[in-house]
Amino acid sequence: MYLASMKTLMKILIRTAQPSRRASCATILGIESSCDDTGAAVVNEAKEILGEALHSQKQLHIDFGGIIPPFARELHRKHLPAVVDSALSAARMTVSDVDAIAVTVKPGKHDAWKEIELKMKFPFLVLLVSGGHCILALVRGVTSFSILGSTLDDSPGEALDKSARRMKLRNLPELSMLSGGEAIEKLAQQGDPSAFQFPFPLGRARDCNFSFSGLKFYLLKTIRRLEEKQKVEGDQLVPELADLCASFQFTVMKHLCTRVQRGMGFLDLNDLMPKNERTLVVSGGVASNNFLRSALERVCNEYNYKLVCPPPRLCTDNGVMIAWNGVEKWIIGCDITHEFDSIVPEGRCVNKTTHVFELLWERN
Question: Which GO terms describe its biological process (predicted)?
Answer without folding.
Answer: tRNA processing
